[in-house]
Amino acid sequence: MPAYNEERYIRPTLESVMQAKKIFEKKYKEKVEVIVVDNNSTDKTAEIAISNGCKVVTYAKHNLAAVRNAGAKAATAEYIAFVDSDSSIIPENTFINIYNNLANEKIFGGGSLILPDKFNSFFGFFGFGLVDTLMFNFFAVIGRTSAVLIYLRRSDFEESEGFDETFWALEDRDFSKKMKKMAKAKKQKILHLRKPVIVCTRKNKLLSFSKMVSLFLKILKKDAVKKEEVVHGFMYDFDKLR
Q1: Considering only CA atoms, which of 39, 58, 45 is closest in space to residue 13?
Q2: What is the Cα–Cα distance from 16 to 18, expressed in whole angstroms?
Q3: Which of 146, 177, 218, 221 is deepest in the core (most CB within 10 A)?
Q4: CB–CB of 219/231 below 8 Å?
Q5: Is residue 127 a contact partner of residue 114, using CB atoms and an 8 Å limit?
Q6: How confident is the model at residue 232 (pLDDT cuts 50, 70, 90)?
Q7: Is 16 a domain residue?
């Protein structure tokens, strides 16, 4: 889990992760290692993670792709899963399903669908209204891509050379596309988990609809996600954008 100044939001995520961890370990007698990559936070993010039994890795550079890579490098398990830290609530059987899926040699890995913690409107933006949430999940299933949660084998992650650190945003979507290509080459399939991850809509609550749309349109321009000056504020200083 990459985390930067998430003391207000990380607890629900950790609670759900630890509950899924407990259920998995009871069933399979194997250990789940939970790693939080503290991305140079100035609050109590690391302290909260440690108090919840997490392994904390510190990484200074504010680049989510690099932060995710640092977490994977610190992991010791055969299987790896990535999930966002800001109140992304995973289902209780998440680790059981990941374990069972990756035990099947026909499955390369996958991700999950999403469900907002609150629908802001019938037609919102970027997955937080009823219509666009359905569209996001539809294209995730059809395109076999994912965000928020991604899982695969360590050997395949190392072969992929990890997340592309030239991306300052949407690095998870880029990586899931890389997974899709690798799976096709290996004649395996991408399989998303059946139950969605509940995602936090805090950013939509902070900004007006028009300002949120304007920000996303800037980020979605060609190669914008590879320009730090375009996306840094959105990813790391969001409160200052209000």
Answers
A1: 45
A2: 6
A3: 146
A4: yes
A5: yes
A6: confident
A7: yes
Dist. CA 137–CA 151, nearest whole Å: 17
The DSSP bridge pattern shows strands 149-153 and 79-83 to be: antiparallel
Structure-token pair, residue 162: 């990890």
Q: Name the β-bridge partners of 79.
A: 153
Residues 175, 171: Cα–Cα separation, whole Å = 6
- Counting Cβ atoms within 10 Å, is residue 200 exposed (0-12), middle (13-18) or buried (19+)? buried
Single-letter amino acid code for the residue at 199: V
Helix and strand totals (H; E) in the chain: 10, 9
- 3-class SS at 242? coil
Give the total number of structural domains in the chain: 1
- Locate 25 and state its tokens: 């370990």
**What whole-number distance in Å separates Cα of residue 144 and Cα of residue 223?**
22
What is the per-residue pLDDT across 31-59, written as a single tens digit (0 to 9) for each? 999 999 999 999 999 999 999 999 999 99
CATH number, position 185: 3.90.550.10
Would 242 be classed as within a structural domain? Answer: no
- pLDDT at res. 137: 75
Tell me the whole-structure pTM to 2 decimals: 0.87
Strands 189-190 and 197-199: unpaired
Examine residue 167 and state whether it is found in any structural domain, yes or no: yes
Are residues 101 and 79 in contact, defined by beta-carbon separation less than 8 angstroms?
A: no
Rounded distance, CA 114 to CA 112, Å? 7
What average pLDDT score do residues 139-151 get?
Answer: 80
Q: Is residue 78 part of a domain?
A: yes
Q: Cβ(228)–Cβ(144) under 8 Å? A: no
